[in-house]
Every structure is written in structure tokens, then in C-alpha cells.
Amino acid sequence: MGYRVAVVGATGNVGREMLNILEELDFPVEKMHAVASRKSKGVEVSWGDKTIKCEDIELFDFSTVDLVLMSAGSDASRLWSEKIGKAGPIVIDNSSAFRMDPDVPLIVPEVNPDAIKLATKKNIIANPNCSTIQLMVALKPLHDAATVRRAVVSTYQSVSGAGKAGMDELWNQTKAIYGLGDARPKLFPKQIAFNVIPFIGAFQDDGYTDEEAKMWKETHKILDEDIKLTVTCVRVPVFVGHSESVNLEFDRPISPDEARAVLRDAPGVMVIDKQEHDGYITPVDAAGEHAVYVSRIRKDPTVENGLSLWIVSDNLRKGAALNAVQIAQLLDETGIIKPASGYRSITV
């Protein structure tokens, strides 16, 4: 007993993680469909202890499912998500296509679960940007304790944020450099192996990139439109796991100890913060994990009521697939979706 679910983009990094996490969290699935573009029709992907074959999105009847997890990119979402929503199921869309649509809720379940009430306006729910998700999970409890006035964020984003092609480019360039081969960039604008690139997305007229703009726009929609936020997004030669250096200014004094206590009680957060070896988290430590990790919590004496901290999370999990599955759980818990059998799950 359970839901009829389709994962669109099932052959991609995030699509595969969605299938894995639905299984890990024991989300009640009666029938699972892997859906992809025509060129991937028949490709097998893992589902539990078996494999299923991808079905052609052009031929798939979406009226036969209850829930669609969409991870096929913005262009595919713009083409398909509204059509799918009109066919009946609710779409949880991992792209940026509908994040700023006022009729589409943008949800991080630990932060703004009440936004789920808007889900049936278009039958679409937007999954935020990977870097925004981990920032929101850490900022929400601190903002509740002592209002955040301003945030300065620098991201250190792994190549998996650019998909399998990004991971391949880092791997191939690394091998080429050691073997005196061709390390010229193909996907990224500059060499990514043994380098960092202070540019993700596309430049805007103000000099920021659209990846940077996503973070403040999404923060304003999810958490508080009054938070002043400036961002620099950087691509780094890490396979999985995004990191963020965050400087915060609050409307009242908040000590590092108080911040640690607040964060330790917050859902989805793990505090690893000691001034010793292994007293902080790195992307390698966070890979494959569900939590948003916070380390290096310290007072910033250069501003009034300032703190600095370090945030790390697996961008394929909490930054994408896990957050989408948690939204699905929220839909189930609130009764917005119901399987034909009437069975309801309990969130893990």
C-alpha cells in the first residue's frame, strides 16, 4: 500500500539519489516509475533491491501517478511541470523554473513547512537551490533566537552541483594533469582541477551571477525579506558537498555558546565545533549524510552583534534529493496527498 510515484530525470545524479532516499526513508511507494528523455528509454536504474527501466517522458501518462519528483533541469520543468500538475499529481520540482512564482511554494521542511498549504494552487512545489537549503536550515533557528539583519556568504560548491558532467570534468582534468594530457576546460569556464572558480551561472548587469541572486531571492521568499544578504559563489575541486563561510549580524548580542545551544536543538542540524583536530566538518565528512553541519562558530568583533560560522552539507542529498523527499513526506503527513488505499505513512 502506498503512492504511485514517478521520478523524472531518473538517470541523473539527483534523480538516482531521489530513488535511493525514497527507499532509505521507507516512503510508502506502491508503484515506482523511472522517467527520462527518449534517449534514456530502457536504461535501467536501481530501485530498492531491483532495477527498473526508464520510460519515455513523451509517452508517459502522468494521470496514473500521485506524485512526481522532477529533476531534469529548468528547460524540462518549464515544458512539463505545469502540464503534469494539470494531469493530477503534485510535482516537486528540483529546478529553478518555478521558485519565484508567487503561486508555487518554495519549501525547506525544517524552515517553512506551513507553505505546503499552497501546494494545490498549481500542483507544483519548488525545491530551493542547494546552497540556499543548507543556509536556511542553519539560519532559521538563529533568526528565531536573535533576528538576523545581514548575512555575508561565500560558497565553496562542489562540481556535482553541475551534474555528472562536472564530476567527469574534475576527474578527467586531474588525470590529464598528472599524465601530461589535455586539461583544457569543456564544461567549466576555467580549469577546475587544482583551482577554484569565482563564478557559477551567468553574469547579471549588477556584476553578480544568477547563482548568487538565487540565494538572496530564495532566502527572502523562504525566511525573511528584510534580511540583507550578499553572496559570492565559488566552484571548488570537490566531488560532493557544498561549504559556506557565513558572517551574520543580529539585532541583539548572541554569544557563540548560545548559538551552539540553539543549533544543537534545531531540526536537521549537527554541530561539530571544537578547537581541536577533527573539531570541524569538511565536505568529505558530510558526503552521504543527511544533516546540515555547522562548525567554527565564533564572535566577529568587527561588527555589532556579529558571528561567523562554517556550514557544510551533501548537495545531492539535503541540497536536493533529501529535501524533495522530505517535502513528499510533508504532503503525506498533512493529508494533501492520499494514496487510493487510504494508508498514511509516519515520517522517519
UniProtKB/TrEMBL annotation:
<comment type="pathway">
    <text>Amino-acid biosynthesis; L-lysine biosynthesis via DAP pathway; (S)-tetrahydrodipicolinate from L-aspartate: step 2/4.</text>
</comment>
<dbReference type="Pfam" id="PF02774">
    <property type="entry name" value="Semialdhyde_dhC"/>
</dbReference>
<feature type="binding site">
    <location>
        <position position="99"/>
    </location>
    <ligand>
        <name>phosphate</name>
    </ligand>
</feature>
<dbReference type="InterPro" id="IPR012280">
    <property type="entry name" value="Semialdhyde_DH_dimer_dom"/>
</dbReference>
<comment type="function">
    <text>Catalyzes the NADPH-dependent formation of L-aspartate-semialdehyde (L-ASA) by the reductive dephosphorylation of L-aspartyl-4-phosphate.</text>
</comment>
<feature type="binding site">
    <location>
        <position position="157"/>
    </location>
    <ligand>
        <name>substrate</name>
    </ligand>
</feature>
<keyword id="KW-0028">Amino-acid biosynthesis</keyword>
<dbReference type="InterPro" id="IPR005986">
    <property type="entry name" value="Asp_semialdehyde_DH_beta"/>
</dbReference>
<feature type="binding site">
    <location>
        <begin position="39"/>
        <end position="40"/>
    </location>
    <ligand>
        <name>NADP(+)</name>
    </ligand>
</feature>
<keyword id="KW-0560">Oxidoreductase</keyword>
<feature type="active site" description="Proton acceptor">
    <location>
        <position position="242"/>
    </location>
</feature>
<feature type="binding site">
    <location>
        <begin position="160"/>
        <end position="161"/>
    </location>
    <ligand>
        <name>NADP(+)</name>
    </ligand>
</feature>
<keyword id="KW-0457">Lysine biosynthesis</keyword>
<keyword id="KW-0791">Threonine biosynthesis</keyword>
<feature type="binding site">
    <location>
        <position position="235"/>
    </location>
    <ligand>
        <name>substrate</name>
    </ligand>
</feature>
<comment type="subunit">
    <text>Homodimer.</text>
</comment>
<comment type="pathway">
    <text>Amino-acid biosynthesis; L-methionine biosynthesis via de novo pathway; L-homoserine from L-aspartate: step 2/3.</text>
</comment>
<feature type="binding site">
    <location>
        <position position="315"/>
    </location>
    <ligand>
        <name>NADP(+)</name>
    </ligand>
</feature>
<feature type="binding site">
    <location>
        <begin position="11"/>
        <end position="14"/>
    </location>
    <ligand>
        <name>NADP(+)</name>
    </ligand>
</feature>
<dbReference type="InterPro" id="IPR012080">
    <property type="entry name" value="Asp_semialdehyde_DH"/>
</dbReference>
<feature type="domain" description="Semialdehyde dehydrogenase NAD-binding">
    <location>
        <begin position="4"/>
        <end position="119"/>
    </location>
</feature>
<dbReference type="InterPro" id="IPR000534">
    <property type="entry name" value="Semialdehyde_DH_NAD-bd"/>
</dbReference>
<keyword id="KW-0486">Methionine biosynthesis</keyword>
<dbReference type="Pfam" id="PF01118">
    <property type="entry name" value="Semialdhyde_dh"/>
</dbReference>
<comment type="similarity">
    <text>Belongs to the aspartate-semialdehyde dehydrogenase family.</text>
</comment>
<feature type="active site" description="Acyl-thioester intermediate">
    <location>
        <position position="130"/>
    </location>
</feature>
<protein>
    <recommendedName>
        <fullName>Aspartate-semialdehyde dehydrogenase</fullName>
        <ecNumber>1.2.1.11</ecNumber>
    </recommendedName>
</protein>
<dbReference type="InterPro" id="IPR036291">
    <property type="entry name" value="NAD(P)-bd_dom_sf"/>
</dbReference>
<keyword id="KW-0220">Diaminopimelate biosynthesis</keyword>
<keyword id="KW-0521">NADP</keyword>
